[in-house]
Write a structure and sequence with these properties.
This protein is an alpha/beta fold and about 170 residues long. About 25% of the residues lie in helices and about 30% in strands. The chain contains 4 helices and 8 strands.
C-alpha cells in the first residue's frame, strides 16, 4: 500500500497527467543480486504487462490527457535506439513519454519511438531534463517542442523554504 501503481495530477492549465513507474529486468536483477532472494524477496510483474495495465487504467478510468512512464530500465548508447525502454515503447504504444533511467545515459535529443518520446538526463541529479510538449490533435499525439538538459550545481539557488529546513537540521 505504500507504493502507488499510478498517480494523476491536474496541471494549472487543466491538462490531466497520468504517471506510472517501472523497474526494468536488468535493474530488478541488480536489486535482487546483492544478498540473494532470501534477503530480498522481491517479485516484479512483467514490465510490458504492468505498463499495459497502467496505461489502460489511466486512460480509460482516470481519463488522463497524457501518460508518462517513470522508468528505471534504460536505453543503450551510442544511438539510444535500443534498450528496455525502446522495447517498452514499441510494445506499449499508449505511453506518451518515458523518462528513462538505470543506464545513467545523457540522451542529448529525445528519442521518438512511434508516438512515444524517450528522454534521460544522466544520473545522480547531475542534470535536470526539461521537456516542452505540445498536443498535436491531427495526429492525436504529443510532439516535443524543445528539450534541455540543465546542469545542476551550486550556481542554482536553492529553494528558500527547503534551505531553511536544511539549515535548521544542520544547526
Amino acid at each position: 500500500g505504500d507504493i502507488l501503481d499510478t498517480d494523476v495530477q491536474t496541471l494549472s492549465n487543466g491538462i490531466k497527467v497520468g504517471y506510472f513507474g517501472l523497474i526494468g529486468e536488468d535493474a530488478a536483477t541488480v536489486v535482487n543480486m546483492p544478498y540473494g532472494s532470501e534477503t530480498y524477496p522481491l517479485e516484479f510483474t512483467d514490465m510490458v504487462t504492468a505498463a499495459r495495465s497502467a496505461v489502460t487504467y489511466l486512460k480509460d478510468t482516470e481519463g488522463v490527457d497524457i501518460v508518462i512512464c517513470l522508468s528505471h530500465s534504460g536505453v543503450n548508447e551510442p544511438d539510444y535506439t535500443t534498450g528496455e525502454d525502446v522495447d517498452l515503447a514499441v510494445a506499449v504504444p499508449g505511453i506518451d513519454v518515458i523518462i528513462s533511467g538505470h543506464t545513467h545515459t545523457l540522451i542529448p535529443t529525445p528519442v521518438t519511438v512511434g508516438t512515444t518520446t524517450i528522454v534521460q538526463a544522466k544520473s545522480y541529479t547531475q542534470r535536470l531534463g526539461v521537456l516542452d510538449l505540445e498536443y498535436n490533435p491531427g495526429l492525436s499525439k504529443w510532439d516535443f517542442l524543445s528539450y534541455d538538459s540543465v546542469v545542476i550545481d551550486d550556481t542554482i539557488p536553492g529553494d528558500a523554504y527547503t534551505q531553511g529546513l536544511i539549515d535548521g537540521y544542520i544547526a
